[in-house]
Design brief:
alpha+beta, 4 helices
Length: 144
């Protein structure tokens, strides 16, 4: 009973630390939105939540839950970007799976900046640089 409570506490602390990491990244997103004088329509491509296994020593130790969104920077390319949704999701799942097998540890804080840069780089390779901006909307881990 006590061990289960400690595991839940660890999971909660991990989630809280993820939220603080996201809050550290978020000011960049809000700084770009300070242009209230310009009436600008912002379009986002949101992905459904992805749930992946987290491995330690070749065993499943927990689950990672991730939800992403792309801010489309050039409206004229929106249809092309939306058409690439399934390929992007596939690339994200493969990358997150390898990330979950190497860099994520249940009960420890994940480096969100590294993960965000890695996913943005993959997006830029696929769609071209400067077409989108990737946001990690949700990131949580929990023991299996």
């Amino acid at each position: 009973m006590r061990k289960a409570a400690l595991l839940r506490l660890r999971a909660c602390l991990s989630l809280i630390s993820m939220m603080f990491a996201l809050m550290a990244i978020a000011p960049q997103a809000f700084a770009a939105g300070d242009k209230t004088a310009e009436a600008e329509t912002v379009r986002f491509l949101k992905f459904e939540t992805m749930v992946l296994s987290v491995f330690e020593e070749r065993q499943v130790k927990g689950l990672m839950q991730v939800r992403l969104a792309l801010k489309i920077l050039h409206e004229e390319n929106a249809a092309e970007i939306e058409a690439a949704r399934l390929r992007l999701r596939d690339i994200y799942i493969r990358t997150l799976s390898s990330y979950g097998g190497t860099l994520i540890r249940i009960g420890h804080t994940a480096n969100m900046a590294i993960l965000q840069r890695r996913l943005q780089r993959l997006t830029d390779r696929m769609l071209g640089p400067g077409e989108t901006e990737l946001f990690i909307i949700e990131f949580a881990t929990r023991p299996a």
